[in-house]
Amino acid sequence: MGERERQLDRTADTDEFELELGSDDPTAESDARGGLRGRLGTILTTRELIGAFLTTVLGLVFVGGFLPLALIGGLVGVFAGGFAYGVGAGSRPYLPLAVAGGLATAAWQVLNNIALTLLGPGVPLATIALVGGALAAVAGGYFGRDLRHGLTRDLGEDRPR
């Protein structure tokens, strides 16, 4: 009988321990299970990324294709695509634009200079294009969002100081 009482005592001690450490908040468990993927889903959605990528590629091809210098023309085209996305997108389009603009400009630079990429200084050029494209797309998105905000604001509103 003594052994059975010790077993019951151990179970009771374990239950008390679990009750003290348990969480009453059901959202804490779901957040812990969601991990990084759950948090990233709210920051960057697939729809936003595809829209940003399409507008930056269209700006890159149609605007950047007409300018004579490949990298400068590409950056101007990505800026134009980011501007168009900023005018039409919701609030805070910066992360999708940075990812899409950087990748599109780097791919454009690598494909335009395939011989340089294979023979030597292609990686630094692609890195410069990646960073420059991300910055150009974010700047275009910022100015496009600012234009949309200025066009949709009431005329009687005072400017924030």
Query: What is the count of helical runs?
Result: 7
How far is it from the N-terminal to the C-terminal residue, by CA? 80 Å
Overall pLDDT confidence? 79
Question: Count of DSSP E strands?
Answer: 0
Q: β content, as a range?
A: under 5%
Features:
single chain, 161 residues, mainly alpha, 2 domains, flat
Your description of this structure?
- The radius of gyration is 26 Å and the shape is flat.
- It starts with a helix and ends in a 9-residue tail after the last helix.
- It is mainly alpha-helical and 161 residues long.
- The protein has helices at residues 2-21, 26-43, 46-62, 70-88, 94-112, 114-119, 122-152.
- The longest helix has 31 residues, at 122-152.
- Helices cover 81% and strands 0% of the residues.
- Helix 4 (70-88) packs parallel to helix 7 (122-152) and helix 5 runs antiparallel to helix 7 (122-152).
- It folds into two domains: 2-42, no CATH class; 44-152, no CATH class.
List the helices and strands and how they pair.
Layout: H1 2-21, H2 26-43, H3 46-62, H4 70-88, H5 94-112, H6 114-119, H7 122-152
Helix pairs in contact: 3-4, 3-5, 4-5, 4-7, 5-7
Structure described in brief:
With 161 residues, the protein is mainly α. It is 81% helix and 0% strand. The chain folds into two domains: 41 residues, no CATH class; 109 residues, no CATH class.
